[in-house]
Amino acid sequence: MRKPWSISTTVRNPERLRGFLRVLKKLEGENFTKEIQVKYQIMLIQERLYVPRNIPFKYKEYFDDPSKEMPYSIAEEIFYLQDYKDPPMRGRQSVNPLNKLGFCIAREGLGAVKITELGNIFLQEDYDISYVFFKSLLKLQYPNPWSEDEFSSEEGFDIVPFIATLKLMFKLNQKSKVKGLSREEFYFFVPTLINANQIEEQIERILTYRSIKNSQEKQNFITEFLKDFYGRDKLSDVSIKNLRDYGDNAMRYFRLTKYFCVEMDNLGFNWRIDLERDRMTEVEQLLDSFTGEAIRFDSLEEYIAYISDITKPVLPWERLNNLRRIAISLRDSVLETVEAIETEKLTKEEKDLLTCDIGRLTTKKQIEEYIKRMREIKIKLKMLIRKKKLINNIDNIREIIRILESPRDLRRLTPENFEKLLTDALKTLNDELLIQPNYPMDDEGEPIAHAPGNKADIECFYKRFKAICEATLNTTNTQWMQECQPIMRHLRDFEKKHGYENVYCIFVAPTIHQDTYNTFWYAVKYEYQGKAQKIIPLTSSQFALLLRKLITYIEKGQKFTHHELLKLYEKIINEVNYLNSSREWANRIDRILKQWAGESA
């Protein structure tokens, strides 16, 4: 029976794979026997990377409190309480996406567990997530010797999904005025493209689907198409749900490569996915070099050698002339963007780079560094243009306020979109030296994942003070355990780097648990690691009051400055000297903010 392709149904969030790989690294060198498969799954439970359904009440504390170390023996007991029919299979399922994506070799009968070179890069502290997944997805193909039973040539599979999707969208954009794919189009027509030789047929289906104006007729078209694809007379709800899940999952992985960009609203919905405009030269070179068809391998050993070799496949820009074309194309794109912003926003070094003779860059390393700097300049310019649109835009500010004050909308946000929303909010205040989010971005400056765990979510620099902003959508009783320690550590690292004077942390969540107030109260009133900190916990509605105050300034034609923020932050911090409990402090913060926001500009 025919089925759509998928990247990973075990781990839907690509970033979680790093934790799975980190645990597997501890087993490197051991044969992946049934015993080790079980051990691996138990270790995932021990690290709380996998949470089973059946957890005895007496052990729930280990999952409620991430700081509490779980002994292996307890994780083992929890594992066997699940009463799996095939216990080793759980370990095989968990390692499957790591094998499939070329991060490791871990399979029974193939000798010792090995983390590939690409896998080791993924585990590095300063790993480049876009590089890791680009190199990985270039090799992911169906059929392959890993997945012969799952996606076989007999079922019609002959595809490298990443390349084939690039080609589908590239050719579709040439035939249609409507660029890219809507969310629904991506779900229905990308995972069902299982053979690279059927790209033209799939494009015609998409164009036919777009030409239908009646919504019921559109639905009928999709129903008939999927019946034909699955080879069934009747379509189950599961078939539709799977396509949505597979499509959403594939979109997440593809975006991480930075070859696809997504336009969406503030809530992360109503998105369209398209090819990244500033990488069109690379896209064209990739499509000239690769057909999107699967490579044939004579043996599993030959395939393993291929996925273990980080130099394969050979990229077209390994040749200097192709790499130089990318540099020229990117520079031209940056120059076009410069026209929309004041040139004084660029440093002398950046202006010199834009006028340098690329022909004089003679080594691969020099050209790659130039391309890297061009991308950095492009994002900087995009952020400046975005800020220009945000400043004094009352309608936009009110929309941000609406979302911050809506529990329903906040529940729909992803962590990265919440971080982006707060970044935009901070930039509307228009008085900073720099607001720097730490989430990885695509070439348009849109977040493709949330900030990594070893950094603050957002860093803020003003003339008179500095701050980090930490955001979470977690409103459960685990909030204080999962958020407080990392936040206080991030702030201490930031303090060490930038000096302890006038350094703050703004913590924002839809609601704040009393235990979170307790933890921050102690750090502010007494100490964290021997020195008091300046942490200001705000609910998202309280944070919205900052923007309400801003609107009053705009309406009166006055400028809101960071001095206002500094006075507010200091008042909140100083209140702990006159109070006896964190509960009093929480109530006082609310009164201070409401009084401050209600004051005349």
Put the structure in a nutshell.
By secondary structure, the protein is of the alpha+beta class.
The CATH class label of the largest domain is Alpha Beta
Per the CATH scheme, the topology name of the largest domain is Restriction Endonuclease
Strand order within the widest beta sheet: 6-7-8-9-10
Distance between the termini: 68 Å
Dominant shape = globular
| Low-pLDDT ranges | none
Q: Class by helix and strand content?
A: alpha+beta
Average pLDDT? 91
- For the secondary structure, the number of strands is 10
Question: What is the quaternary state of this protein?
Answer: single chain
Q: Residue share in helices?
A: 40-55%
Main sheet characteristics: 5 strands, mixed
CATH architecture of the largest domain: 3-Layer(aba) Sandwich
Beta-strand percentage range: 5-15%
Domain tally: 4
Q: DSSP helix count?
A: 25
Radius of gyration: 26 Å
